[in-house]
Automatic annotation (TrEMBL):
Domain N-acetyltransferase: 96-245
Listed InterPro entries: Acyl_CoA_acyltransferase, GNAT_dom, NAT_camello-type
GO MF annotations, alphabetized: N-acetyltransferase activity
Protein name listed in UniProt: N-acetyltransferase domain-containing protein
Tree of life domain: Eukaryota
UniProt keywords, alphabetically: Membrane, Transferase, Transmembrane, Transmembrane helix
Transmembrane segments: 47-78
Length: 271
């Protein structure tokens, strides 16, 4: 039996599937982010500082001071969880407005990866080989999978950047964890880059956190380059996530066309 995944543009009615997928993907990275937070230097510094204050200034027993460890860890988890819930709230609003934000003009678009599977699956998706194709290829092949269940297992969006009319943002690149390492993210990213190229953008940018190493590696293999690093604050300035902004250069920028000024010659011509 053939298992296929179709890459296609978003259609009305996809909101529920996109919302469920993105929520699952966001929450699946909660534990990895939390573990990364625990082993940051600021966590150990906080534990040592609070324990020392309790022991020296309040003369509490050492066993009581050690209770700081689970308290700090619990606070970090709570802060991380609240941040993820806030992110989900933001995403929920965006998913509801996908038709307006991504599909209402010629400069943005949203794509989904849709799996066609039997209603009764005897294997896990990660154990199955899928044929990934675009909707145009599926239509030309005249395949009939109308009796199979359909499930959205990947998304990606592209919209105009608010920094410059010539640059675009690639957003919401998600693939369900059971369907990863099958080339789905590569297909989605290719379509977004091709759309940006055809639309006339000079570059396309994407942001990834320090805990999404697979996504960063994929972008780098596709020709993205590191543009800048910055920190996203979780609990004030105490707990932060390192963010990577990557850029894919499609056309030379205006700066590349500007003539290079030889400052030595410019200085001499003044005399």
């Amino acid at each position: 039996m053939s298992y296929i995944i179709i890459i296609r543009a978003f259609r009305p009615g996809d909101e529920t599937g996109c919302n469920k997928l993105i929520r699952d993907c966001v929450m699946s990275s909660l534990n990895a982010t939390f573990c990364g937070m625990i082993f940051k230097e600021i966590t150990f510094q906080s534990i040592i500082l609070v324990s020392a204050i309790m022991f020296i200034f309040f003369e509490m027993p050492l066993t009581v001071c050690l209770l700081v460890v689970p308290v700090v860890i619990a606070l970090i988890y709570a802060g991380t969880y609240v941040t993820f819930i806030a992110k989900l709230t933001e995403i929920d609003k965006e998913v509801v407005n996908i038709p307006r934000l991504y599909m209402s003009n010629a400069f943005s678009c949203f794509w989904v990866a849709e799996a066609f599977e039997p209603y009764l699956m005897t294997q896990q998706p990660k154990e199955i080989h899928y044929i990934v194709m675009r909707e145009e290829q599926y239509n030309r092949a005249n395949l009939n999978f109308c009796l199979q269940a359909k499930k959205i297992i990947g998304t990606i969006g592209l919209c105009k950047s608010d920094r410059s009319d010539r640059s675009a943002w690639i957003k919401r690149l998600w693939v369900h964890e059971q369907y990863r390492r099958k080339g789905i993210a590569s297909y989605l990213l290719n379509d977004a880059i091709q759309f940006a190229t055809n639309t006339g953008y000079s570059c396309a940018n994407i942001v990834a956190s320090e805990y999404t190493e697979e996504g960063r590696d994929l972008c780098l293999r596709k020709g993205f380059e590191l543009k800048q690093l910055y920190h996203k604050y979780i609990l004030g300035s105490y707990i932060m996530i390192l963010m990577y902004e990557l850029t894919y250069q499609i056309k030379p920028t205006e700066d590349d066309y500007s003539p290079k000024l030889d400052f030595g010659k410019a200085f001499l011509t003044q005399f």
